[in-house]
């Protein structure tokens, strides 16, 4: 008798290769994990590499809540050239000698793009405008505007400034940067806006995501490694790492699983998603505080 294959519930932290869309990685993981129930928390552009959080089986219910978390990136911004896509994937639309741009002007430009800012995403992005993806509108030559939206750039640091010469002979500057930001922040839009502020244009030439919330690049596995050995972070461990933990007694655990809205202790007020565990440390549910009561987001018990 053949043994039925069972895929464990949990998160898979992938080190995404360049040239793959997030959907490509999901499709690959469906084959590796032998299940259709795979999703991702927050996309990464095809050019970018690094941390992509996937959920397998019941852990897909965690993903929408993980997507709202803080991200960290390492990247290279080229000053002196604009591109159609604000990154190295698009054709160059303008070139300007950037060799005379001073370091203090760069620092001042970065200061303007730090903290709570309003950002206009790239037109070649997956944002929906009236139900249609922005990149689709751009490809079809439509003239449209994307409204600015609030994002938070907690840290924007320049590690190195390198003189370089672009393929068309333009003297450019390559900035090696790190960015810690809220979900929904476009690093290529930061590159575009920094270049615009300095009057020379700018775009992103390399990007690596090194962290999504508590999940860091050192725990990520390449698709080849996952093909050899599927490494799944159990759902309870994933929840413990990402959300505040609320342990309830057996009586409250039973009430919660029967749909009763428990009173939430004051310490969790305004905490967002909360992971609820029973006395045996079993992960029961993800809830949020609403008018003092636990509103269920997803049940796992």
Low-confidence stretches: none
CATH topology of the largest domain: Pseudouridine synthase
Overall radius of gyration: 22 Å
Q: Portion of residues in helices?
A: 10-25%
Strand content: 35-45%
**In this structure, how is the largest beta sheet organized?**
10 strands, mixed
Number of helices: 8
Structural class: alpha+beta
Q: Architecture of the largest domain in CATH?
A: 2-Layer Sandwich
Q: How many domain regions?
A: 3
Key phrases:
301 residues; alpha+beta; Pseudouridine synthase; Archaeosine Trna-guanine Transglycosylase, Chain: A, domain 4; 3 domains; 10-stranded mixed beta sheet; 4-stranded mixed beta sheet; 8 helices; 18 strands; 22% helix; 37% strand; elongated
Overview of the structural elements:
Helices cover 22% and strands 37% of the residues. It has 301 residues and is an alpha+beta fold. Strands 1, 2, 3, 4, 7, 10, 11, 12, 13 and 14 form a 10-stranded mixed sheet that branches. A 4-stranded mixed sheet has the order 15-16-17-18, with helices on both faces. The protein has a two-stranded antiparallel sheet with strand order 5-6. A hairpin with a 5-residue loop joins strand 16 (273-277) and strand 17 (283-290). The longest helix is centred in the N-terminal third of the chain and has 12 residues, at 22-33. Responsible for synthesis of pseudouridine from uracil-55 in the psi GC loop of transfer RNAs. Residues 243-300 form the tRNA pseudouridine synthase II TruB subfamily 2 C-terminal domain.
């Amino acid at each position: 008798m053949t043994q039925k294959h069972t895929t464990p519930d949990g998160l898979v932290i992938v080190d995404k290769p360049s040239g793959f869309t997030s959907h490509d990685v999901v499709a690959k993981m469906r084959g590796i994990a032998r299940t259709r129930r795979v999703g991702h928390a927050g996309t990464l552009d095809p050019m970018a590499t690094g941390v992509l959080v996937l959920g397998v089986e019941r852990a897909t219910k965690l993903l929408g809540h993980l997507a709202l978390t803080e991200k960290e990136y390492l990247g290279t911004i080229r000053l002196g050239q604009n591109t159609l896509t604000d990154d190295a994937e698009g054709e160059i639309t303008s070139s300007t000698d950037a060799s005379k741009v001073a370091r203090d002007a760069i620092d001042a430009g970065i200061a303007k793009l730090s903290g709570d800012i309003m950002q206009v995403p790239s037109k070649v992005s997956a944002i929906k405008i009236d139900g249609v993806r922005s990149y689709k509108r751009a490809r079809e030559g439509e003239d449209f505007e994307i409204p600015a939206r609030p994002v938070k750039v907690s840290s924007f640091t320049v590690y190195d400034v390198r003189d370089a010469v672009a393929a068309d002979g333009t003297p450019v500057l390559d900035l090696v940067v790190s960015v810690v930001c809220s979900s929904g922040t476009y690093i290529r839009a930061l590159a575009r806006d920094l270049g615009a502020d300095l009057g020379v244009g700018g775009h992103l030439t390399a990007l690596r995501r090194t962290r999504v919330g508590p999940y860091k690049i050192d725990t990520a596995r390449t698709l080849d490694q996952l093909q050899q050995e599927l490494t799944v972070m159990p759902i309870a461990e994933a929840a413990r790492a990402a959300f505040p933990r609320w342990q309830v007694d057996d009586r409250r655990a039973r009430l919660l699983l029967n749909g009763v809205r428990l009173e939430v202790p004051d310490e969790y007020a305004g905490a967002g998603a909360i992971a609820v565990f029973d006395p045996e440390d079993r992960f029961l549910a993800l809830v949020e505080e609403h008018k003092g009561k636990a509103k269920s987001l997803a049940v796992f018990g």
